[in-house]
């Protein structure tokens, strides 16, 4: 009986400690997932946006505007939002640290022209 209790305690502590770490964005490959708002395949990773809720549910979007509409329509409170760096699509930036611009020089998947950059200097050539 004592051994079973020890195993249960050990297992519980392992699960709790493994889930206490920093939450990071998932790396996707092109076409692997569909947008949770518009159901388009996510093929242009420069616009990929991820949301994670406080309950741990992840949502993936093909454009920043899809993520914004999803949050407003579902009235969810995201724990974290990551946007892809337009100039380096394999790099995710926390939305609160990103420079997000809207321009007609960039064609995003949904046509809103929203793109995220790591710095103001990176965004300057794309501004109207």
Summarize the structure in words:
This protein has 128 residues and is α+β, with helices and mostly antiparallel strands. The protein has one domain. Helix content is 25%, strand content 25%. It is built from 3 helices and 6 strands. The model has no long low-confidence stretch (mean pLDDT 87).
Uncertain parts = none
**Envelope shape:** elongated
Biggest sheet layout: 4 strands, antiparallel
Secondary-structure element string: HEEHEEEEH
Give structural attributes.
128 residues, alpha+beta, 3 helices, 25% helix
In short:
This protein has three helices and six strands; from the N terminus they run αββαββββα.
Per-chain topology:
Blueprint: H1 2-18, E1 49-53, E2 58-61, H2 64-74, E3 78-85, E4 88-94, E5 99-102, E6 114-117, H3 120-123
Antiparallel strand pairs: 1-2, 1-3, 3-4, 5-6
């Amino acid at each position: 009986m004592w051994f079973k209790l020890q195993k249960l305690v050990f297992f519980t502590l392992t699960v709790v400690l493994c889930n206490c770490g920093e939450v990071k964005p998932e790396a996707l490959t092109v076409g692997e997932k569909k947008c949770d708002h518009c159901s388009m395949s996510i093929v242009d990773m420069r616009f990929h946006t991820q949301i994670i809720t406080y309950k741990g549910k992840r949502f993936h979007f093909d454009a920043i505007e899809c993520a914004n509409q999803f949050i407003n329509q579902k009235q969810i409170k995201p724990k974290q939002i990551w946007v892809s760096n337009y100039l380096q699509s394999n790099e995710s930036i926390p939305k609160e640290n990103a420079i997000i611009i809207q321009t007609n020089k960039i064609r995003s998947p949904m046509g809103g022209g929203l793109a995220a950059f790591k710095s103001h200097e990176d965004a300057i050539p794309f501004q109207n």
